[in-house]
Amino acid sequence: MAPHALSWICVALLVVLASSSYVGARGARAPKTSNPTDGFTAVSLEESNFELQRPYNEASGSRYSFDGTVRKLWVLSSDKPHARQSHTSPRTEIRMEGYDYSSGVWQFEGYGYVPSGTSGVSIMQVFGGGETATTLMLHVYNGVLCYYDSQLVEDNIYDRWFKLNVVHDVEGSMLTVFIDGEEKLRVSGRGGDSHYFKFGVYAQNHDSSFMESRWKEIKILKKD
């Protein structure tokens, strides 16, 4: 594959889907704009629930800032992994601590912002899967938000605040993603017996040299 080709995969997908009956059917369906948090209760979060993972040789302030409202996380493609023994790609992520789950219906809610130029990066994930490390990842490629690197979620994500809700029904093996209150994705789970939420920046294929995302009003909710 030519360099940066994967970065355009979701953009190309827009063209393919636009000429298919799938988009016609999807466009004909009335947007689901009901409140995705109906029937859920937010859990209590303290700052100790926000565990920072950053390149192991960098101080937290060199890759992360929090002004009491907005959490800004950034990483360089040349950075070290988050642990000396790790062979994973560079990341600066918040791992939501204290609310790992193996059953029930759980939800992540937050407002995200991705500045233009950030590409080839995961900005949010549901960790834990059967044969894979994760059961859901949301990637950004050139302003397009994707489910992993294949399926379109939102085609215009740069330079704006968007509200993200991710619902994980463990027993039902189903994940649903909402952007600004509208259902954008519904996919099957990937197994696994322990899960938790993460957000920030985690380099993927053909990552940009600098990656950043910003977050505010983070909540974790559980279905009543």
From TrEMBL:
The keyword ATP-binding does not apply. Pfam families: Alginate_lyase2. Residues 48-220 form the Alginate lyase domain. Residues 1-18 form the signal peptide. Keywords: Signal. PANTHER family: BINDING PROTEIN, PUTATIVE, EXPRESSED-RELATED, OS12G0171100 PROTEIN. This is Alginate lyase 2 domain-containing protein.
